[in-house]
Amino acid sequence: MDLNDYWQENRRFVTTVGAGAVVFLIAKVVLASNFEDDINAKNRVISQRISDLAQPMYSGADLEDARAENEALLAAVDTLNAVSDFAPRPEFQLDATMGSSSNQYLRALARVRDELIPRANRTNLQVDSQLGMPRLSPTRDAEIVRYLEALDVIDTVVGLAVDARVQRVDKIQIRLDPGLNSREGLGAVERTRVTFSLTGSSLALERLLTWTQRPRSGQRVLHIDDVEMVPARSREDEVRLDLTIVIARLTEPVEGEV
After folding, report:
1. What is the pTM of this model?
2. Interhelix angle for 141-164 vs 202-213, to 10°?
3. Cα 58 → chain centroid
4. What is the distance between the alpha carbons of residues 77 and 75, in angstroms, rounded to a whole number?
5. Residues 223 and 245: beta-carbon distance below 8 Å
6. For residue 191, how many C-alpha atoms fall within 13 Å in the half-sphere facing its CB?
7. CA–CA separation, 178 vs 182, rounded Å?
8. Positive or negative: CA dihedral 63, 67, 72, 77
9. Would the CA dihedral through 107, 110, 114, 116 be positive or negative?
10. Strand partners, 190
11. Which domains, from first to last, does the chain contain?
12. Within a 10 A sphere around the Cβ of 17, how many other Cβ atoms?
């Protein structure tokens, strides 16, 4: 078959293909003229990125700076741990040389009652002799440790209430961290909460709050978890203070790297 015969038989196909080729060439020329600069710029950026990736991203000085920053962060974490982690006074800590944990707990509770209740009575401060402690003494060492810490806080707050001339300590409630006895366990921070409901003049309660955050000589800052002060229902010149102190225990200390 010669070319003339092929043309006669496939004229429409050849024309279509030829038109398509022309359109393609025209489109290529138009796109190249409009976007060639952008394409070349992107190609240069890609080449630069490839070149950058072939070079080390960090120098020895960068590594030393990172180590110094990590050491500074670890020091800051240690400082925060020291401030946040509750440290009970020695008389509220278990001592392996002082007998069973249960007996040490009972002695500490009796000592606080014998000292604190008469002191409160001398200033007409009304406070429950149970001091919010459980009616049945705890038997597990883990619970005894935490109730002793709570007793330390109670001794401190009620002592401040005596000095501030608060009229009544209406309620004291201790709530151990739910994770202590759960299968899930404790999180990074264990929290024992001690809640007080106190009634007195606004001046006395404000003085008490101030002393918890700006302690006098030999005392500690107490970490407040919640606080609310409202007018008392019984008398117009009294207010009620609901104060929750949190005893924090860091269960997962940071070591090595931050």
Report:
1. 0.69
2. 130
3. 33
4. 5
5. yes
6. 13
7. 7
8. positive
9. positive
10. 249
11. 3-81 (no CATH), 88-250 (3.30.70.60)
12. 11
Q: Hey, which residues does 191 pair with through a beta bridge? A: 248
β-pair partners for 177 = none
Residue 125 burial (CB < 10 Å; 0-12/13-18/19+)? buried
How many whole angstroms from its chain centre is CA 162?
A: 33
Give the pLDDT confidence score for residue 14 in this predicted structure.
Answer: 60
Which residues, given as ranges, of the chain have pLDDT below 70? Answer: 1-11, 13-14, 17-25, 27-36, 77-85, 252-258
What pLDDT was estimated at residue 56? 74
Nearest to 248 by CA among 88, 87, 86, 90: 86
Q: Give the DSSP per-residue string, 53-118.
A: HTS-SS-HHHHHHHHHHHHHHHHHHHHHHHHHS----GGGS--TTSS-HHHHHHHHHHHHHHHHHH
Calculate the alpha carbon distances from 134 to 105, 107, 236 in Å: 12, 15, 33
Per-residue model confidence as pLDDT tens digits over 108-136: 999 999 999 999 999 999 999 999 999 99
In whole angstroms, what is the distance from residue 44 CA to residue 47 CA?
A: 5
